[in-house]
Amino acid sequence: MSSAPLDELIASLGDQMVVTDPDILAGYRHDRANDPDAGTPMALIRPVTTADVQVVVRWCAAHGIPVITRGAGTSLSGGATAVDGAVMLSTEKMRNLTIDTATRTAVSQPGLLNAEVKAAAAAHGLWYPPDPSSFEICSIGGNVATNAGGLCCVKYGVTTDYVLGLEVVLADGRAIRIGGKQLKDSAGLSLTKLFVGSEGLLGIVTEVTLRLLPPQASACTVVGTFASVHHASEAVLAITAKIRPAMLEFMDSVSINAVEDMLKMGLDREAGALLVAQSDAPGPAGIAEVELIEKAFSGCGATEVFATSDPAEGEAFTAARRAAIPAVERLGSLLLEDVGVPLPALPELIDGVEAIAAQNKVMISVIAHAGDGNTHPLIVFDPADADESARAQTAFGQVMDLAIGLGGTITGEHGVGRLKKGWLPDQLGPDVMELTARIKAALDPEGLLNPGVLL
Amino acid sequence: MSSAPLDELIASLGDQMVVTDPDILAGYRHDRANDPDAGTPMALIRPVTTADVQVVVRWCAAHGIPVITRGAGTSLSGGATAVDGAVMLSTEKMRNLTIDTATRTAVSQPGLLNAEVKAAAAAHGLWYPPDPSSFEICSIGGNVATNAGGLCCVKYGVTTDYVLGLEVVLADGRAIRIGGKQLKDSAGLSLTKLFVGSEGLLGIVTEVTLRLLPPQASACTVVGTFASVHHASEAVLAITAKIRPAMLEFMDSVSINAVEDMLKMGLDREAGALLVAQSDAPGPAGIAEVELIEKAFSGCGATEVFATSDPAEGEAFTAARRAAIPAVERLGSLLLEDVGVPLPALPELIDGVEAIAAQNKVMISVIAHAGDGNTHPLIVFDPADADESARAQTAFGQVMDLAIGLGGTITGEHGVGRLKKGWLPDQLGPDVMELTARIKAALDPEGLLNPGVLL
């Protein structure tokens, strides 16, 4: 790689924005998937404005240099892993955010954290619902790129349901605006929806217009303790067959114990599984929902059922669930799954994961956004143990095969990234893969945007 | 057109499925946009299965014959208008529907009416929310093609929010399945969302998997009578700034009187505008919402405010609003608008439409899904009066220019079709139009699917 063209870019953007210091670059090679095969970027660029992004993309297009767009680097499937010789475009300095109370929208650059958008909305008495467990450390741009979900999505939907408009820099450097603050829009193809979840393959999102809601009503929390994961998954179906809870989260015994080790909050270490459900329906409707949840828990063999309308108590259990990934991560390296199935297949999925763990002699902890059938089997392994690492990799693939076999998906909310692309054709089939490639080629003919992801 | 290839198609499909009788064909030339320039199809084909559709599309591809896909023919923007020499593919015989209570989904062929899907879901204690005013006569396939909205969308979202999966026959005759019964899915590009609202340009939807909800709670209805449209539009903003009502509909004096002429239900003929709002929040939350709506009506100068928790009374007002288009249609031919704006611009849009009517000396009746800023100015004219017809056409364009100028859209829920495509570039701009054309070319390189729509 000649450095001459990079000088050209530094001349355009200034040397503050273009980083080539190898020590700093090293910190941008990996995302949270910790791919050992991560490459080394030729430069890190931290644009501030859409115009900066256009300069970068035009320069990359002129010189045939790939661009990896990175938000907060929390991808669990390698969506923001560096590629040798590519430009790493970090959106971390793109932090403008305005809340428009008249239209109840947030207009955000991609570098804001999800929690910052939530907080800014809340300061105006409004609510941005999507709440990935990583909401305090993940960026809104990354949420858009992966169509991120979270805990309240079972009732309130995922990121795409809140994206009203986008500004996108295309592969040739043009910036387009699609959608806007209007709540309904059938004019033209659904391009806004196409860019959401496109994992940086079709363009670089430089601004997002998000729909905000009136604040969520205060929720009641019901916690159920079960002797086995199977009983807990049956309880999930008993609830989702009747109501749409505001939250319905699942933890198995490994994650319960790992969280208890970390947080020491008094969780039952003997439990086989824990369900944390919430209802935010107001008044008598909420009371009826809580009763239905309690009854479903008891009816499916819960050993203990605990309900509280105290928000602090409820938040403690939600925080415990959110802490599960970092807590289990203390037990070893993780291969983090994100498989989802149609709800009736949830017990079979959870039982199947248990069998895969036994068969491969690896520890798999299952946590789940159970109410929408989206599970996170966490495969724990010691990377220094080559044999265990290989067995973990085998289990990783078998879990995806299982989900596909049950009519489900290899990823409910994290995206395919680089880690799961080998399984994508098994889920989508050759015709849908070919269609995907055609759209990619139409929008990024040179293949410079986030190469190695999805395709 | 040689008839030899058509014989080939009749040999494959049988002569029941392929219609060439000119009297029958005449009935399939127009949709509800009544385009005087509608063409005459070479044949009408009424497939039953996906395989039938594949045969038709492959035959059309082989002979370079365009295909217009038609649901129930209720398009108000010419999305299903015939083109000379094209095949008209009607989905009216594709009527399989299954309700899966375990996953709370409906799997429907495109030919079912929206009302039939709603009724089948209701028979299982479930609810399919999207409710175009035409729900009793429009097809679910057409709803998917236009991303149709309706009255409850202000709280419950539009068609795309309920489409979990699709089967689509592509331009080359291959059938693909995308999405499914899983509630969350981030695997691959958001192709399901891309096909929703694509107006028959990218493929032919042969099956749709729809998310169903638990039944809607019973709603309270609040009706406000206003001296002017401006006061009513201010009341809309006072409500939407605070809550998300389950319905917030608007009628002006022309539509009030037209409906009263037709239904004789005792509407106030002196009213300048009527708002019909609903809250379906249960218990005290619902009471608080109703009070807020009443207060907003009174605070914005309502001359009368009437609230009822009687479902039949509420439905009478909803039915009155739904009857507005057929009622106003009795006054003359209609050019039916569907413009939407960000909510704060609603009063300016409604005032501007009044000015356009005065300036062009045409009658324009405004009805609206006011709660999401989506209005239907109905331009009334006598097609036998060439001068008035020309003035109506001028007004039609000016209303779209006005909406675009206010940062809005030329269509909130009806689609662009053939009638509005002249204005689409003004809304989207050349870069988005070019992007649209690239996606169209990638999926339908020969341009045989619904030519003349959008592009």
Automatic annotation (TrEMBL), chains A, B:
Entry cofactors? FAD
For this protein, the record's Pfam families field holds:
FAD-oxidase_C, FAD_binding_4
Supply the alphabetized keyword list.
Answer: FAD, Flavoprotein, Oxidoreductase
Q: Taking every annotated instance into account, which residue ranges of this chain make up the domain FAD-binding PCMH-type?
A: 37-215
Q: Which InterPro entries match?
A: FAD-bd_oxidored_4_C (IPR004113), FAD-bd_PCMH (IPR016166), FAD-bd_PCMH-like_sf (IPR036318), FAD-bd_PCMH_sub2 (IPR016169), FAD-linked_Oxase-like_C (IPR016164), FAD-linked_OxidoTrans_Type4 (IPR051914), Oxid_FAD_bind_N (IPR006094), Vanillyl_alc_oxidase_C-sub2 (IPR016171)
Per the record, the domain of life is Bacteria
Q: From the Swiss-Prot or TrEMBL record, give the protein name.
A: FAD-linked oxidase
Give the organism, scientific name: Gordonia jacobaea
